[in-house]
Amino acid sequence: MTSSSDSSGSTASSASTALTRRTLMGLASAGLAAALLPMSASASASASTSAPGSARAAREAGAVTARLPAPTGPYDIGTVSARLVDRSRHDPWVPAQPYRELMVSVWYPAAPGAGQGRPRARYMAPGAAARWDAAAPHGIPKGTLDFAATRTHAREGAPADTRGGRRPVLVYAAGAGDPRTWGTSLVEEMASRGYVVVTVDHTYESPAVQFPDGSVKDFAPLMKAFEEAEKDGTVPELLKKTTDVRVADSTFLLDSLGSLPHGLSEVVDRRRVGMFGQSAGGIAAAQTMYEDRRVRAGVDLDGTLEFNSDPVGTNLMPVARHGLDRPFLLMGSDRPTEPSWRAFLSHSTGWKRNLTLRGAQHQAYTDLSALLPQAGVDRKTVEKNIGTVDPRRAVAAQRAYVASFFDRWLKGKDDGLLAAPSKRYPEVGFTG
Q1: Which residues of the chain have pLDDT under 70?
Q2: Beta strands in 39-138 (DSSP E)
Q3: Whether the Cβ atoms of residue 364 and residue 387 lie closer than 8 Å to each other
Q4: What is the CATH number of the domain that holds 110?
Q5: Which helix (H) or strand (E) element contains residue 354?
Q6: In whole angstroms, what is the distance from residue 351 CA to residue 187 CA?
Q7: What does the buried/exposed string (b/e) look like for 151-177 if buried means 16 or more CB atoms within 10 Å of the residue's CB?
Q8: Residue 253's domain spans which residues?
Q9: SS3 for 241-294, per residue?
Q10: Coil/strand/helix, residue 166
Q11: Which of 132, 184, 193, 210 is a Cys-bridge partner for 73, taking CB atoms 3.0 to 4.6 Å apart?
């Protein structure tokens, strides 16, 4: 494991193929397409050609340096990034590479005053930010937000707060085609409440993963695999492989908790592990928890627990077919409960809850709720991507319920929020 740098560098080759509508619809059934759609072949090519110096160009063009909502917990936050290398397997998307490498960031409570003189961490490394911006992600027009200049609330490399002993650790997984930073507002909230949170980029699935040497690896291999699967009629099998890769990455990450950078392995309590994520990240949380008992509690934010199938409900994931015997929270957008969630709930013997964020679309469970309104887009674009829910209320609600869930099951503190509908959060409906 080596510590990550924040330097920009050369970019990997762009994706050379575009996904057809049918493939995208197939991916959507597993929560994998919505985020991939913006990064078409032309957008990826544009990212490849515009990446050098694009952060500077964005500022010169008047791009907005966005602000993330401040975390509300009692702790200051520190963060470090690292490259993890799993030498026990070849890369599943680039078999010629005899190892699997991942980039992770660790967010944690910082010692009081320890952040003085330390810079606030970037939202994204410059090379990855250039790719993300060029994709015009999820309704954000290219060049309107400066992702590289945007700062988080965490201080780079701040000493950890060691008071109170070891802390519960959470793994956060973003949706398919999204970077690991795409849930920063929620991740920072959990760190400010006393958790160590590890975010992970699944290399060759994320649109741009920047490594310490400055190289940026995109998802061209995965795009090529999807094109071939669409031609061969093997999309469900490829979706299963994608989930299997995420689970294997997550298991490796859990194995690596004993060797985190910056001495953070001395801070985490590996007996209290949770996992959460949006879309495909929520899928990964559920399936990883099913396969790895080290995960004691999990949250799925609007991720379908089914591979591509017709009719719907006939190709459920193992976790949906068999359920879980440990606590799990489902929190979805404003639509009827889908068959895979109904199956999961009926087969699960552990504590479970199914919540709906009224008026929300799929991306309301990401940083888009905070960032899109700052991009100067019209209300129609906001509603298409986030929904009719007030974006600020969407952020507040998911923070409150995710924190309540993990506090109950990893800290033994129950604030009662998950017991019944709350007047504090009328946007949240209890559906099971």
Answers
A1: 1-61, 308-313
A2: 76-86, 100-110, 120-122
A3: yes
A4: 3.40.50.1820
A5: strand 352-357
A6: 23
A7: ebbbbbbbbbbeeeeebbbbbbbbbbb
A8: 2-430
A9: HHHHHHHHHHHHHHHHHHHCHHHHHHCEEEEEEEEEEECHHHHHHHHHHHHCCC
A10: coil
A11: 193
